[in-house]
Amino acid sequence: MTDRRRLLQIAAATAAGGWLPRSAWSQARTRDNPFTLGIASGSPLPDSVVLWTRLVAPELAAQPVTVRWEIAQDEAFARVLHGGQAEALPELAHSVHVEAGGLAPDTGYFYRFLFGDWTSATGRTRTLPRPDAAMDRLRIAYASCQRWEHGFFAAWRHMREDAPDFVLFLGDYIYEYSRSARPVRHVDGPVTIGLQQYRERYAQYKSDPDLQAMHAACPWLFTWDDHEVQNDYAALQAGDGELAADFPSRRAAAYQACYEHQPLRASVLTRALQGLASGAELRLYGEVRFGTLAQLCLLDGRQYRDPQACSPPGRGSVTRDPDGCESWNDPARTMLGAAQEDWLRERLGAGGAAWTVLGQGTLFGQRDLRAGPGRMLWNDGWDGYPAARARLVEALQQQRAANPVLFGGDVHENWVGHVKADYDRPESASVGVEFCGTSITSRAFQPDKVSQRMADNPHFIHADAERRGYGIADFTGERLEVRLRTLDDVTRRDTGVRTEASFAVEAGRPLVERA
Q: Whole-angstrom Cα distance, residue 297 to residue 345?
């Protein structure tokens, strides 16, 4: 694996994407299309956006190569507005992360890459408005959990037809497993542990044409959960079983492969200098401002968390009765880590937008899994970190966050409801609303029992685990409308899609209602 200091230097050097001296040009050529993993854009700002691709060709081997990139406002590229060259280096798997600057705010663009005689697909991207600019409307698609073996990625094709402005991806982009019961299609290779194995797994996922097309359709905003590394891992502690002798090294390899395959800025690697002993860091949490319409705080609930409470040896998460777990309510335990909690509180206090949106990896509200008396809670989610959840709710209240909306994933089920001041008191105040989405393909755990759980979780107004899909959220200054889009049959490439349910939230009222 590349030394972490060298990795940081390489990422920073290749991100500029300007014109390179002729001495840096590479004359490598490939017989076949090197852009088979597609293109993507993301990490938008008012004046820049990250353009991504990764070249794959046996002729490249271990040599650096030079890739051209272009941006235009017409799809035919009759007038190229911006362009340059970027080095695709073997240390980063010949990935390219161009931080294209000098762009106009709140503006759409087309982009593409060129290498030798080959031209990539054409992508659409857009910049953010200025933080103080008015924005009439915003459409965000939110999604998570796309296990290859559990179905086809038809959800991305239907999402593209829904034409979101941005995609909010909330975790489990890949799965580390080597096989699955009743697979719809088969994954290549063993359980991912080393850097090359993670690279190959990302490459297989990114070979899917529907996923590629959605990446090319608009910018993505990205955070992760656990399967980008290992099921139920917590910070530097391994999750379900330990297949690598050195888990921090395994995590560092997974983090590097994630960076190599997502449109992320080089600045996310700013603490890679810490080295393998601490597992390195990928700083994913941050703020996205959609003018004065919405403030999105994108959170990382996996990298900095304390280990799950009262898990037996060799298992990262369990479902259990919290009354039998002494550490469950320990006020010192954290889901986000102290630094991220402090950052979030400060950003919530900044305000300045009609809607306060939190994008994070899992279900937020309490979900009692035992019908009738007593409680059974899942300790890998926010239920296992009740003190941390209470601090976040308190921050929303104390900082007077405007119209809080939480989006989540992970549980492979749709849950819609209210963020409560105290989940143990149903009559307590509603602080905001929550939309936890189902999966792109990943199967639900107990889909037949969801309806039984509604009576024991009155802060939710809707739950369903039967179907896979995504959500579409439409924001205006006065209203939020959310549609749950679910597939008819995820095992078919040509499956149809339907709107399972629609909901509305009026600005100034922390109440979600069926639309």
A: 10
Mean pLDDT of 259-274: 81
- 96/3 Cα distance (integer angstroms): 19
Burial of 281 per CB tally in 10 Å (0-12, 13-18, 19+): buried
Distance CA 138, CA 215 (A): 18
Calpha distance 251→282 (Å, rounded): 10
φ and ψ of 433, to 5 deg: -130, 160
SS (H, E, C) 191-217: CCCCHHHHHHHHHHHHCCHHHHHHHHH
With contact defined as beta carbons under 8 Å apart, do 98 and 19 qualify?
no
287: tokens are 């703020």
Q: CA-to-CA distance for 138 and 293, rounded, in angstroms?
A: 8
Q: Are 154 and 495 in contact (CB under 8 A)?
A: yes
CA 193, chain centre distance (Å): 21
Question: Phi/psi of residue 177, each to 5°?
Answer: -70, 160
- The token pair at 497 is 């899609």
Euclidean distance between CA atoms 167 and 296, whole angstroms? 12
Tokens 């590479």 — which residue?
Answer: 26
Cα–Cα distance measured from residue 281 to residue 303, given in angstroms and rounded to the nearest whole number: 8
Amino acid at 451: S
pLDDT, mean of residues 317-327: 86
- Of the pLDDT bands very low, low, confident and very high (cuts 50, 70, 90), residue 428 is very high
Nearest to 483 by CA among 465, 498, 499, 460: 499
Q: Are 206 and 196 in contact (CB under 8 A)?
A: no
Q: Any bridge partners for residue 470, and if so which?
A: 485
Q: pLDDT confidence of 274, banded at 50, 70, 90?
A: very low
Mean pLDDT throughout 369-398? 94
Q: Find the DSSP H helices in 297-438.
A: 338-350, 386-398
* The predicted structure's pLDDT at residue 372: 83
**Token digits for 507?**
């600005």
Strand-by-strand arrangement of the 469-476 sheet: 95-100, 49-54, 39-42, 220-223, 166-170, 137-143, 469-476, 479-487, 497-506, 512-514
Enter the tokens of residue 341. 């909690």
> Can you give the pTM of this predicted structure?
0.95
pLDDT reading at 397 higher than 60: yes
Classify residue 356 by burial, with Cβ atoms within 10 Å: 0-12, 13-18, 19+. buried
Give me the sheet containing 460-464, strands edge to edge: 286-290, 294-298, 355-359, 404-408, 430-436, 414-420, 460-464
Give the pLDDT confidence score for residue 19 in this predicted structure. 60
Q: At what angle do helices 247-260 and 195-206 cross, to 10 degrees?
A: 40
| pLDDT of 454 above 90 | no
Task: Say what the pLDDT of residue 271 is.
Answer: 56
The pLDDT score that the predictor gives to residue 356 is 98
Closest CA to 166 of 134, 107, 126, 129: 126
